[in-house]
Amino acid sequence: MSVVEIPDEGGDVIAAVDYNGVIFPNFDPDVIRNISSIDIRDGDIILCAYPKSGSHWMWEVTRLVLAGRLDDEDRDKMLTMLERSPESGYINLPSPRLLNTHVGIKHLPSGVFNKKVKIVYILRNPKDVAVSYYNFNKSARVPYKGDWVNYIRPFAEGKFQYGSWFDSVLEWEEVKTRYPDLQIHTLFYEDVKENPVREAKRLAEFLGVERSEEFLEQVCRTCSFDNMKANAASTHAAKSYRKGEVGDWKNWFTVAQNEWFDQLYQEKMADCKLHFRYSLDTSE
Ligand code: A3P
């Protein structure tokens, strides 16, 4: 395990941790090393996603849907993040514990696959993920200073934290076939933007809790982008609320970058049946 600086195409760097060839954010190496031995319990609910797919948002929605009340004690998502928080931070939480992670399949604790857990898996189109991650890195504690033009290619090649978006998504698709009994609920960021209450209803069904339409509407209002951004304004999580839109990538990708990325997507995802939406405008 070593602290590394990953250069973009212009020589600007992102600080990270290299653990057996896998690039993690610059978190505590001891916590990263311990991930695979975390004691997962029956009943745990684990929110999994490649970074910048909307996990803060879905964390909050899932937390409130589970609690069944809006005034449930506020809990910091970071304190139950497997690769970020020591296990002591969540070991004594009552079941069902709501945990979260961005780590790839090979680092997940074995309990994820042999205990009775529920996985809420979030997906977002990779162009908006790339733009979101670029801006997130720019606002990091040790800010990345690079330009977008130098970021996008190494990002797409999986050089930065958590590796390749393509690999992450394909691995999860394979897991769904390899472990057909694993309870996984797949949510698309774009679908939640389009109709949050419909998606909250589907989530409640998956979690096995009965919640009224009125309550789910309140949850979605509470978890609107503006509310969450305002609530996080003075906290370490403020940088996780930037624009909260579908299609901001159009303000960043040049025509050439877009064509190159589409081509790459075709190559990497040829056998993948997932359909990503890059805009909510149905006329496109
Ligand atoms: P943008 O950078 O495109 O704005 P994560 O939580 O996985 O780190 O994802 C962060 C992305 O989700 C950011 O995207 C952030 O603005 C967006 N986001 C956070 N809360 C949201 C909300 N309530 N509604 C919509 N998007 C939200």
Explain how this protein is built.
With 284 residues, the chain is α/β, with parallel strands linked by helices. It has one domain (38-268): Rossmann fold (3-Layer(aba) Sandwich), CATH 3.40.50. The chain is 38% helix and 13% strand. It is built from 11 helices and 7 strands. The strands form 2 sheets. A 4-stranded parallel beta sheet has the order 5-4-6-7. A 3-stranded antiparallel beta sheet has the order 1-2-3. β1 (2-7) and β2 form a beta hairpin. α2 (55-67) packs across α8 (196-207). It starts with a strand and ends in a 16-residue tail after the last helix. The relative contact order is 0.16. The model has no long low-confidence stretch (mean pLDDT 95). The site of adenosine-3'-5'-diphosphate has 21 residues, from α2, α4 and α10.
